[in-house]
Design goal:
The chain has 14 helices and eleven strands. By secondary structure, it is an alpha/beta fold. Bound molecules: nicotinamide-adenine-dinucleotide and zinc ion.
């Protein structure tokens, strides 16, 4: 299946197909007719699994291939690794007509994408996402970034890929917890834009059944993200609907010092809490939070995370989406339709208590 993200002057395809990794070369050749060298960035977990297949396919399509392996984990999304990448790219004699390939999860995609956006004032890049989260979320939309001491994703750019290649087969090697993490974002798409898709997921919440429908799942999620990004590439309006569950999720991530809870776990609990809050505001129909919680629980995700008023306050105060004393929280008008809801931060904290 193919989706096209249409943006002014830089449209690109998202290809979703089993076995695509072994055909990466021909796909990249079509998208990058002029590139000579491809600089593949991956991490230490993904490299032994998928680097050889990918590099062989790229080489067979006539590309010169360099590769660079970073340590796995969020701590690699840092200025030190970025600088290391820049130097390695120059050592590999990357030129402005060459391209960067991100083979890995969201960490590799965000870091390699930011390196591509900045090296030689910007070179082409290709996303080959290998986690469920990266396939349904981070590889589409062009946000690339590294983390700073002051917070996550604070230095970055909008830099759209030339091509996104999704091979659902690579998801087979994901640990269960990492798969579940990605499912939190999948559920989010159902909540904010597609009630029928939510019901579809609720009928088959175990991993084997989900993998049986994975192409449809990837397509549905990427199609929603495509639509939202096309309407609001720079995140000044509709794109904030994608933050459903994320403002409160951020509080849980902070409360656990980014150690106790994964992003997906925090977002899962954040979605349930946001649905409860929506009901207390008179926006979200009663029973919605329970439906979401039921699905998340079946997926092995938490539906509530302990959090103090001070921790919520810290998260809300730091939230990039808040302006002044007001905050836009994403709430559900119904399961399948999200809207922004502006409210005083103080009123929000009171409602959360
Ligand atoms: P990750 O990249 O750290 O991957 C999770 C783990 O899975 C890692 O240990 C990785 O080595 C391993 N892995 C990857 N693919 C594998 C495979 N096929 N088989 C076995 N193991 C595999 O984390 P993630 O959850 O993919 O991404 C999280 C990052 O994405 C965060 O930094 C977050 O900020 C970012 N993100 C970015 C956007 C965006 O729009 N740019 C959106 C959401 C999240
Ligand atoms: Zn998220």
């Amino acid at each position: 299946k193919t989706l096209t993200v249409s943006l002014p002057g830089r449209s690109y395809d998202i290809l979703i197909q089993r076995g695509l990794l072994a055909r990466a070369g021909e796909c990249c050749r079509k998208a990058l007719p002029k590139a000579g060298r491809l600089f593949v960035v991956t991490d230490a977990n993904v490299a032994p699994l998928y680097l050889q297949t990918t590099a062989d396919s790229l080489a067979a399509a006539g590309f010169q291939v360099s590769s660079h392996v970073i340590p796995a984990g969020e701590s690699s999304k840092c200025a030190g690794q970025l600088a290391g990448l820049w130097e390695a790219m120059m050592a590999a004699r990357l030129t402005r007509t060459d391209a960067v390939v991100a083979l890995g999860g969201g960490v590799v995609g965000d870091l390699a994408g930011f390196a591509a956006a900045t090296i030689l004032r910007g070179v082409d890049f290709v996303q080959i996402p290998t986690t469920l989260l990266a396939q349904v979320d981070s590889s589409v939309g062009g946000k690339v970034a590294i983390d700073l001491e002051a917070g996550k994703n604070l230095a970055g750019a909008f830099w759209q890929p030339r091509l996104v290649l999704m091979d659902p087969e690579v998801l087979e090697t994901l640990p269960d917890a990492t798969f579940a993490d990605g499912m939190a974002e999948v559920v989010k798409y159902g909540c904010i834009k597609d009630g029928a898709f939510f019901a579809f997921l609720a009928q088959r919440p175990d991993r084997t059944a989900l993998m049986g429908e994975i192409e449809h799942i990837l397509y549905t999620c990427c199609n929603i993200k495509r639509m939202v990004v096309e309407r609001d590439e720079r995140d000044t309006g509709e794109r904030m609907l994608l933050n459903f569950g994320h403002t409160l999720g951020h509080a849980y991530e902070l409360a656990g010092h980014y150690q106790t809870w994964t992003h997906g776990q925090a977002v899962a609990a954040g979605m349930v809490k946001a649905a409860r809050l929506g009901t207390s505001l008179g926006v979200t129909p009663a029973g919605t939070a329970e439906k979401i919680a039921g699905l998340l629980e079946a997926l092995g995700l938490p539906t509530a995370i302990p959090c103090t008023g001070a921790e919520y306050a810290a998260a809300v105060g730091l939230d990039k989406k808040g302006t002044g004393e007001q905050i836009s929280l994403i709430v559900l008008e119904e399961l399948g339709h999200a809207i922004p809801w502006r409210m005083d931060k103080a009123a929000l904290l009171e409602a959360l208590a």
